[in-house]
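WARN no homologs supplied; continuing
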Amino acid sequence: MPAEYGNTRNLTQSPGADEDHPSWSPDGRTIAYTTDATGEQQLAVRPAEGGPEKVLTHFATGYFYTPRWSPGGDRIAFSDNENRLWIVAAEAGEPREAAHDLYNEIHDYSWSPDGKWLAYSVTASNQQHGIWLYDMDGRKATRVSELLATDFAPVFDPNGKYLYFLSTRHENPTFSQSEFNVATLKMTGIYVATLARGAASPFAPRSDEGAAESTEKDAASKTGGDGKERGQGGDAQGGDTRWKPGASKPLKIDLDGLMQRVDRMPVIAANITQIDARDDRVFYLTVPSDLIEGPLPGEKSALHVFDMKKRRDATVVEGLSGYAISADGAKVLYKLEKKYIVADAKAAGAGPGGAGDDGPKTLDLSHLRVRVDPRQEWREMFANAWRIERDFFFSTKMNGVDWAAVRAQYEKLLPLLGSRTDLNYLLGEVISELSNSHTYVGGGDDLPAERRVPTAFIGADFALDSASGRYRLAKIYRGDNTREYYRSPLNVPGLEVREGDYLLAVDEVELKAPIDPYSFLVGKQDGTLKLTVSAAPDGKRRDLVVQPVKNELPLRQKEWIEHNRALVDRLSGGRIGYVYLSDMYAVGMDQFVRQFYPQLDKQALIVDERWNGGGFIDQIVLERLRRVLVGMDTNRNRTATTIPQQILNGPKVCLLNHYSGSDGDLFPFYFRKYGLGPLIGTRTWGGIRGIRGDWGLLDGGYITVPEDAIYDLDSHWAIENHGVDPDIVVDDSPSDWESGHDMQLEAGVNYLLEALKKAAPVLPPPPPLLPAYPPGVPSPLSPSN
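OK structure emitted
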C-alpha cells in the first residue's frame, strides 16, 4: 500500500492460503514471504508490481520466520521453528543450514554489506547468547563473542567498517524495596567492534587542533570538491551519491580478536530490543521495564537515532510499539497505538526534510479489502492448526498419537461445517486427541458480534426486606481504596453509608421488589451513580454519588482472604501467618509481597493456593520460602535480627485443591520437593505443559501449543494428566461451608500447632557484651597482648 499516493494492491488474491512475514528485496522489485499454498509452509517470492508466485523451498515440515535479503538480492536468510538458520538462493535451490540453536529460535540475523557474511546469535549451554559470523564462501561459522558475555542483535555498518551489537554489560544492580535483594535492570548497551585489525575506534579521542583545515576538508568531502552537495553515506569521488541497492566491495574481517576491538557507544543503558544501521546513523528501540503484566508506569518506548559522525543521540518518536527503516534510511514506518505512520527518519522536531515534506503521514488502511471465501479459509485454518501442533508440540512423537491419521479422520467433517464456530469445535476435537493440557482454541471473524452491555457493581450484598419490599445493603465490601484494583465504591470518606442501610433508588428511579437491583446497574459502569439511601424503609433519605466498579471479585476475594487470616490468627493465638495466592501471575505476586513480608514475625505459615489459576512465578515465591536461618545480628538495643533478613523460620504447610492448576500444580510439587512442609487438601488439576501464547490463524482465530514439559530428576514425566497428590487428604463438603467451616484451612492450623508444640522456632538471643570476641580470641586489653 502507498504511503500517500497510489493504489493498494492485493498481490496474492488467495483466500485459501496464509501468506505472512513479507520482506522487500533491496531494489524494491520483489517481495519474499512465507506461504502454505502448497499444503506446507514454504518460502516464496513474487514481483512487487504483481505477477506469478515462485516457491523457493520444498520442506516436508516446518514453520518459517521473516526472510532477509542479502544486499545484492541474490540470497535470502530465514529461520524456522526448529531453531535453525537457513540460506537459500533467490533463484531457488537447496537451502543451506547455517546455524542451529538448541535452546531458542534465531531471529537476530543480518547480512554484511558485501553479502558474504551473515551475523547472528546462538544460545550456548551456559544460557548466554553469543554472536557468530557465517562465511558464505568458506561455509564456516565462527563464534566471535566471549563465553562470559551476553551479546546479540548484530548489525553490520553499511560502510563495512564496524559490527554493531547489543550486550547486557551494564549490570545496574537495583535494590528491592521489600527485601535485601537486587534485580539487574536496564542492562543493555550498544557496542561497536572494528572489523579490520588496526582500524581506529569510531569513538577515539578528538581534538580541535587544526579545526580550520578539518572544516575545509569536511566541506570538500560533502561537496566532492566541485561545490555540489553529496547525499548521506555517498561516495565523494564524483558521480551519483544517492543510496543504491547492491552489494559492496568485499569486506576485510579479521575474526581473531574481534571482541577485543570493541568500544561502547555513548548512549544510556536501557532495555534495547532492536537495532538498525543506515549510512552513518544507528537506530535503536528502547522499551519500558516490564512488570509481570505490562510496562512500568511512567516509562515510554522510544525510537532513537545515534549519529556516528556527530556522536550525538536523539529521539525520533516516543510511545511506538514497533518500527521499520527504509533501505536508504530516509523514512521510518512505526506503529503508534492502532495507527501506522510514515515519517522522515530523523530526530523529532528537526524540521521538514526537504521540498514537499509536510511531516508524518498516517497510512490509510481503509483500502485494505480482501475477498473472503469462508470454506476455503476454514480448510486452510484446519490444515494450518494441525501443522502448527505437529511442528511446535514439545514431543515429536505427539504423545504416541498417529497425527496423520487424526487429520484424515477429522478432515472428512470439513464439508459439514456451517459456521466459524463449528470450525473452532472441530479444531478443539482435533487438538484434544493429544490428551494434553493447555490446548485451547478460540476467536474467529464470524463469531457473534453483538455488543455486550456489562453490569456495574457497587461492592455490596443486597438483602430483601420482605415487609417493606425494599433492599438493604446487607454487607459492604470495604476493599482498599489506596489501591485501584481493590477500590470500593461505598467505602469513600464522606459517604457515611453503613451496612443495614436501605437502597431506595438508583439515579432517581425507585427500587422495590420484585425488581432486581442489578437491573438498575446495567450499562452504567463508565459513569457515576446517584444512590438514594436511608437508615429505614421510610426514613430520611440521603443522596450519594458513587463511582461503580466493573468487577467486584477483587473486593470479595480480599474480604475472604482477610477473613481467613483473622481465623488463622484467632485459632493459633497469633502464632501462625496466612498467605493466599489467587494465581502465579501479577495478582499472585502482588498478594505475596503484600502478605508475606508483614508476617515475618510469625512462628509458622500457611500458604493457600487453592483455586490458583497458574502463571509462572512459582520459583520466585519458593525462593523466599526456602531461605534458611544461618546467623543472627544485633545492635546497641540488643535487638535480635535474622540472617538472611527476610525469613520466616518455622514450619509451613501448603493448601491445595482440584482447582489449583498449571503453575498452581508446580508450586505445591516443588514446595514438597524443597522439604518446606506437607500439602493439605485434594489432588490438583494436573496440567503443566507450557505455552508461549496464542498462535494466530488466518482470520484472527487462535490455537495454543504446549511447547515444553516438566520431568523429574529420575527422568520421569511429572504431574501432567494426574496432578499433585496431597500428603494429608482433606475435602471441604458443602455442609462444611454451610456451617461456616473451612476444613482444609482448619487442618492446616491444627497441623502447624502440633508442629509448634514439638519444636517452636526460637531465635537465639545476643551473647553477653563481655567478653567481646568469639571464644578463644583474646581481648586486645588482656595482659598477653
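The first helix runs from residue 211 to 223.
OK
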